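QA checklist item 7 of 12: single-chain prediction sanity check.
[x] sequence parsed
[x] length recorded as 563
[x] structure emitted
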Amino acid sequence: MDVTPNSGKGIDAPPPHEAYTNAPDLRREMHQVLVLGAERDGRQARPLTRPPIDATAAERAWLLRRTALMDRMALDDPGPGPVAETAEQLLRHDRRHPDLAAGPHHSDTITLAWLAQMSHVHDRQLPQPTTSDKEPQNMGGKQKTLAILAGTVLAAGLTSPAFGSTTAHSPALRTAATGSGMSVVEWNRELITILGDPKAQPSTVQPTRSFALLQAAEYDAVVSITRAGPAYVFSVSAPGGARADAAADQAAHDVLVALYPAKRAGVDQRLSSQLSAIPGGPGKQAGIGVGAAVARRLISLRSNDGSSAEPPRFRPGNKAGDYRPTPPKFPAPVFTNWGSVKPFVLASGRQFRPAPPPAVSGAAYATALNEVKSLGSKTSTTRTPDQTAAAKFWAAAPVWNVWNQVAQGLVTSQNASLEKAVKVFARLDLSLADTTIAMYDAKYAYRVWRPVTAIRLGGTHYNPSIVGDPNWTPLLPTAPDPSYPGAHGALSQAAATTLAGFYGARHHLAVTSKGVTRTFAGFQDAATEAWLSRIWSGQHTSLDNRAGQQLGSQVADYVARHL
């Protein structure tokens, strides 16, 4: 029996108020999921709305409190994050009642199903339990029920947008992942190869979304099997358990084909090569089915995320500090819509919006701009040869490509397991995608002019500490978007923070871009050089870069806590 609650409804339809109105229908749909799991477990399903008759008084109070909290998630007026907030309350509630959480009427299966469905309706990011949130290990007879119900929810395509958080609190249900992390590396390389063709996708920030979809699909496919009991999901065709490596391969393939249909031949060839290394049998076929289902669901969830919206027209300002198109070609600003794209993990693009930049008439701005004027000029006599090389190095390739290649090298050199690899890449690329969204939210909120504009207009005396130069030219062409915060600072800091969380802050690394390699004593050293390079190339001030650095760190930390 295939149960797919809310089948046919995209994540953006119906509108929020209609989704809340239809909450009772959603409860019935989720009850069907629980009934299916209960029947397979040979027991009678209980209603979601009241505790069992044989529960103790304490259990009844506990379950009623949980139900009230779940009702709140369904019925509360939409706000900046009511679902995530209430889910956090549920977790805190359980920690206060560990004895009941281990009891025979434990309702985590209900919560699991309900949180998954509510995240489907509201597209909120649910908190991932920390170590202190984990279940007591003595689960007794409920383990089978948990496995079955969790599997039912996953079979129904109800994984959380937080990519795995709904079942992370049941470690006893994990089954060993099979396969090497190299398969994840190969799919990451496949996407970079696709992006190397200018016909596949113009030079935009869209690839950050592509990387996030690819890695989230692989991660979800693997986690769906290793944490939810694949033998239940495919009890007939895969009694020995679905293959997580096959699931990851199929999920990656299906995402890339959906994003780049013109590249299908090469992607099909990659899938054939990857799957040929996996032993045949029902487990392999079951894994393929899981991967296909996850990819299909994920693509559907992101189909109306705002990434394909028409960028709104930008109207340049004429006051000191206002962004305006930059020389020599004065192109219109780009990605004016990207700050409104729905984030993957953040609640909104403005969640970590930096504080407003210092006034261009002040001393802090004068100091920062004069630094760029000296070091970032095309004819600078103060910039060192190594600084020039670094400026060109970090501008040679998209910074998200560079950091994904760093992750490829780390996973390969460490011979990472499949589970480790999907987690490294998922955290990295979800952080990069959401940092990009947050960065553009801030850029078009503050609309700060670029250094080339500020230096050339310095003679207008908006700041007495800045001497203008109408002929000043940066070392490298200026990107057509506002200056604050800086992209390289934000993205590189997000990547460095993420990778340091896995490999340690002082992990020696070599970073290669367009055939040139630079070495660093740690991830932070690489990230710092990345944003300094934007001063040396004449693109950004240190004010831009430090705001970006803070933003990237905040986003990466948030993603790590929720994944």
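[x] summary fact logged: Strands lie at 509-513, 516-520.
[ ] second reviewer sign-off
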